Amino acid sequence: MSCCCLFAAKTVYIPTYWATDTYLKNWSNSRSYQSTNFVVFWGSDAGTNPAAYTGTNASLKFNPQLICDTLEKIYTKYITTIGFCSDAATTNLGKYKIIIVMTNTWGTGGPNDFAVATSFDNTIGGMFVDATATLDGGATSHEFTHTLQFMAAIQENPNSGGAFQNNDLCGFFFETHANFMRAQMYPIDCIVDLPRWIGTGMFHWSSTRHHYDAFDLLFYMQQVDGITMVNRLWKESIANEHPLMTYKRLKGWTQVQLNSFIYDYAKRQVTFDYTANNYGNIMRTERDRIRAQEPDNVWRPYTILKQVNATTGRYIVPDAFAPQDYGFNVIPLYTTCATKLVTVKFTAPPAGITGL
User: Fold this and answer.
1) What is the DSSP string of 128-184?
2) Which residue of 120, 159, 287, 330 shows the fewest CB atoms closer than 10 Å?
3) Domains in the chain, ordered, with CATH?
4) Does residue 1 surpass a pLDDT of 70?
């Protein structure tokens, strides 16, 4: 390990591999900027004052202070308010600054990601971001969540396989949780890609068809248990657990009790009945806007049943839309009588088939 420049209480950690990396070995204090919790590095293509760049390459025009100002606000929300990770003086997050590497500033062949998080030497988290990903806090609030997910594994839950690390079941959850956290900072972002979520609700919750968008269940968890419970999923998960397995264990629930929770959540999907941070109202407003202005983007808001027996009034969900594990259908009912009372009788699936 090597370090440079004490600033306030935290130290800048220089990753070991930078010493031999063709591009990052050329890092320089003259091409860096520090705030209380972050340090930004950029390559020589952006010069020593990228805020003054007047060319046409958008990757070379940025203001490091503004980037850090935004990130510091996100840091306060995620660490001080939500408490996702500790930054006590004895922790790595309390010792070191988060490293931000500005991509597409290091020359041809150098770091060129748009926005991606990482951890350095299993010591401190960081991000590689292009200047165009820092124009507001949308991308960086998402990626900073990933940075803290790495920190959860480094200092909050360092047990092998904890914090959903190296777990093929949980790749989706990193993205779902990152967008959940972004919505804590910017509630309007709860509508990001809403049509996709509306159209894929029948897929299993972990499906990569909607893994950036499956955060409504976390909204309900937040509503029922408080956001600390979502933090606990990362801090107290064990190897090879799916997040719902972790939740079930932390709650001391049976599978029946977990199913009831999922059913309560699924019912809320009909009207986006989520009270925290005004999410429900924001989603309903966006749903109505899409219906009125972009009807081509409303893929499949409802499941239309297939009639199998006209005499008994029996219907089934078409195979293509049958709900997978923890998926759901929203089914409109069209009555043929004046009464407002509707009775629906559900028949259990065949033995060996489970679902919501």
Assistant:
1) EE-GGG-SSHHHHHHHHHHHHHHHIIIII--STTGGGTT-TT-HHHHHHHHHHHHHH
2) 159
3) 2-242 (1.10.390)
4) no
